[in-house]
Amino acid sequence: MKFLKTLFVLLLISHLSFSQSVISLMNRADQFFETMNQGKFEEARDFMDESVKSQISLDELKLFWLRLENSLGTYQSVDGAKSSIQGDYYQVVLTCGFSRGSQPFTFVFNKEEKLVGFFISQKPVENEYALPSYADTSLYKEQEVKIKFAEGEMAGMFTSPKNSTNFPVVIMVHGSGPADMDESVGSNKPFKDLAAGLAAQGIASIRYVKRSMIYPNTFNKAFTVKEEVLDDALTAITLAGTLPGVNKAQIYVFGHSLGGMLAPRIASLAPSLKGIILAAAPARKFADLITEQNEYLYKASGDTSAAGKQQFLESVIDIDKTRLLKLGAIAPDSVILGAPASYWLDLNNHDQLATAKKLKNRVLVVQGEKDFQVSVRDFEIWKSGLAGNKNTMFKLYPDLNHLLSVQKEKGNGAQYRLPANVDINLIKDIALWIKESN
């Protein structure tokens, strides 16, 4: 559930260009990180353009650095650079060294050498994604589709079994944050795996690019999960009923992480749905999950220093600011931990468990024990809360992580840089559950 934007500032690129000293910008980036490494976060904000300061608070900067240190350790150096001109801006990609590894970052500067954006870049991986062994391409075909909304459209893929008709179809709904149609994370492509695996079992699917991936400028003001997730999922459900070979009475939603959290809400808005699959779905509020994640990463980091503990405690206070139940004096577009107040308000005022209890749809809840992002605690809450629903089934997988692949240990985000496919046993269980309703 990689939701918190990593302090990423969107840029409006023009056609003008200018010259900058790469060495100078490398030094600026190094000084910026070293200033945060010393705990001088107010001074670090002085490296930023005024337009960025208004979007990134001191507390958010502290939380960003705490999460970075928990994951990678103490900042040590900067090495290597790739640069490019982006209109009125200069982009520099630097490999930043920490005590427990390195991580590329992209820094974007304006003409005055002020930061207008910085974000984590994908780290090169030694191994590339490969189709899983269960992806028998002779058994299915793929057709491009479009998920349209008022301001544009997103590319999607309809994967269907060959030489078959009247088959079920599954709509795949992403976790939080921008994502492509495969829900790619490092070398992992869980939605692509699921599409291939389900098609080989005679079940079609629709997956699509998340709106925030290609229309980020539509999310620079107050918004909720309606714009981020719900509207496009409902459009995909409607589209599914028009595609050749689909059994209109057998349309399902597979919601992963945030998508699973919202799947009951989607079902309440789409009477045509036969059922929903909640995969690694939060049963609690986001603030509880983020706090739990931070605590896990903090303990895993082995940082026993007083400063580290203090930063962790401060992060808990920062996260508590997202527990909005009403706006009060705060504006809807006020940014809290990378999302507007309107977003937190919407999530916090919706009870996904209560919504699921009211559903007549079939429900399947699946969870991996090796998941450090959404824990077994959430699975148990779903299981307890929906125990009286005869239409609900639960399955816990001891070896699966958040991306639904088999792992030997719980680990952390570094795990996602290594290619691993969605577990075939999970796919077979989903297929069997769907076919039981025929």
Structural overview:
With 438 residues, the protein is α/β, with parallel strands linked by helices. The chain has two domains: 22-120, Roll (Nuclear Transport Factor 2, Chain: A), CATH 3.10.450; 140-285 and 323-435, 3-Layer(aba) Sandwich (Rossmann fold). The chain contains 14 helices and 14 strands. The strands form three sheets. An eight-stranded mixed β-sheet has the order 5-6-8-7-9-10-13-14, with helices on both faces. β13, α13 and β14 form a beta-alpha-beta unit. α4 packs across α9, α4 packs across α10 and α9 packs antiparallel against α10 (306-320). The longest helix is centred in the first third of the chain and has 16 residues, at 22-37. It is globular, with a radius of gyration of 22 Å. The model is unreliable at 1-20 (pLDDT under 50).
Chart the SSEs and their pairings.
Elements: H1 22-37, H2 41-45, H3 50-53, H4 58-72, E1 75-86, E2 89-98, E3 101-109, E4 115-120, E5 140-149, E6 152-161, E7 167-173, H5 190-200, E8 204-208, H6 211-214, H7 225-240, E9 246-256, H8 258-269, E10 275-279, H9 286-301, H10 306-320, E11 335-336, E12 339-340, H11 341-348, H12 352-357, E13 362-368, H13 376-385, E14 392-397, H14 424-435
Parallel strand pairs: 7-8, 7-9, 9-10, 10-13, 13-14
Antiparallel strand pairs: 1-2, 2-3, 3-4, 5-6, 6-8, 11-12
Quick overview of this protein structure:
With 438 residues, the chain is α/β, with parallel strands linked by helices.
